[in-house]
Amino acid sequence: MGQQKLRFFEPADTFHKVRFYTAAGAGAVLYTGLMVGLNQAWYAQQERSRFHLFNDWNEWKNMDKFGHWFTSYSYARFAYQGGRWTGLKENTALWLASGISFFLQGSIEILDGYSTKWGFSMPDMAFNILGSTSFFLQQKLWNEQRIVFKISSFPKNYSDESLVALDGTLSYSLSERARDLYGKSFAESYLKDYNAQTVWASFNVASFMQKSKWPKWLNLAVGYSAENLYAGFDYHFTETTTGKEFLLDPNKYPRYGQFFLSPDIDFTRIPTKSHFMKTLFQVLNLFKIPAPALEINTIGKIKFHRVYL
Question: pTM of this prediction?
Answer without folding.
Answer: 0.94
